[in-house]
Amino acid sequence: MLVAPSYKRKGLLSRNTTCFFCPEGGATLADKAEFKECLRLTWSQPYILQLVFSAGIGGLLFGYDTGVISGALLYIRDDFTAVEKSTVLRETIVSMAVAGAIVGAGFGGWMNDKFGRKPSILIADSLFLAGALIMALAPTPFVIIIGRIFVGLGVGMASMTAPLYISEASPARIRGALVSTNGLLITGGQFMAYLINLAFTKVKGTWRWMLGIAGLPAFIQFILMCMLPESPRWLYRQDRKEEAEAILRKIYPAAEVEEEIDSMRRSIEHEKQLEGSIGEQSLVGKLTKALSSKVVRRGLMAGVIAQVAQQFVGINTVMYYSPTIVQLAGFASNNTAMALSLITSGLNAIGSIVSMFFVDRAGRRRLMIISLVGIVLWLAVLGGTFLGAAHHAPPVSDLETRVFANQTCPEYSPSARWNCMNCLKAQSTCGFCAHGGNKLLPGACLAAGEASRRTCHAGNREFYTEGCPNNFGWLALVALGAYIVSYSPGMGTVPWIVNSEIYPLRFRGVCGGIAAVANWVSNLIVTQTFLSLTKALGTSATFFLFCAVSFFALVVVFFTVPETKGLQFEEVEKMLGEKDYKPWKRYRPDVSSKGRDIGLSVP
Known about the structure:
One of its GO terms (molecular function) is myo-inositol:proton symporter activity. By secondary structure, the protein is mainly α. Helix content is 69%, strand content 4%. Among the domains are: 44-228, Up-down Bundle (Growth Hormone, Chain: A), CATH 1.20.1250.20; 394-469, no CATH class.
């Protein structure tokens, strides 16, 4: 799953928190009481709700873009022969948004510090709106890719600016709950994208509407943000104290304003002291000083491993290619594939909510390990299911194929004993036209294309271009859903939590930025290679490969990522600096009159 990262000011990108965190003092997860207080306060102070909702549209856009391309890709493939025949081109259309997001997040960090949160969100909206319009009007796949880059730039900026703006404009006691809404909007945006994809399947222009409609919420957010103020915290750092105080008076009850102003002043002074203690102001200087510390090296290893593992277990193959995977499981219809993909999106959203209630009870490390065990198990089941489906693929019948004499696959020969899988693997790009009475009976192998598809459908047959008809499809869907349930509450959110807690405060920006870039780059690698792997290795072998990688990640996470649950920043730093530091053992500080002693026990 995709949880929007945001990065600490003055670091590699910007402040490192997630949708669940209070930006000051660690990972403050919203609890039940905080959500109740949030409802009460937003009802009495509607200005807060206006701020949060307006900025939170950025999270909605992030989630929508993640989900919409998975369905739109099916129809882009049908409209452009080049896309139909080239898996690399399909991967590029999907992954260029991720590449753009890497640049957008880095540039957005600088924009946030230099010009403020509000201008950054406005620029992100402009980029997203431009990208949506370019894609909607695209005459060629190349122009779609240009639009995807624009959208990615906007997504990258919005993903780290929206949570930051919300956290800095929210009352401290409900900040965790309000920032959590951004995370829920991301998963909500993904679910909404699948619904919209389904709604436009019968409309002329299909994918153009799916991609173009994303410009509407971007336009709405642009208008709303024009009427809202800058972040009071950013204004205070720029010595525009009167403006900051005026905004705070709209957010806080009169009795609390002075206390909040004083708290913000002390917090910013402390932050500036930490920045000064680093000494070097350049990125290279900060990085060199950070890596000279054993504590930072250990923390960075754990943080980067958690982020890379989050992507290499294959989650974005599901989020970006979910309908395609459903078709690989043997469901030929685009409509059916998108309808069934709603299940994965809905389970992902539920998993994000579950994580909010269990991450402080179960612990970060334990939740990650349990999550990885489930991921390994269900990826193995997925691989086995696709292997069984391939072995039981219906044969190609010469008699059936002769019915479509002018559209036969160029590589098919009556003397060859082909089945559906052989047909789909043909170099000239062919499709399998299933038997009209029973899809598991021998069918025809035809050259892929719109003409062949129409001819096949005219005979009340299904035309398969990704997977073959089989009786294993529903088992694949169950395994896919179980994979999402295993992933979302653990590996979906915990890596961001670990990264918010494991670095010394003075180096949290640069280390969090490195880990975030590692996450985005890993995302790009997986997204750009998935379809090519399914063509080169086969679908079952691809999922077995992800299973093996996930098992390796489980072992590495077990031996490198410590438990940070319940520890203060100073205690985490002390734990990482111990001579006998072992990540798989629990650090338990005991408070006494002589200070803190260290106790180690297996969790």
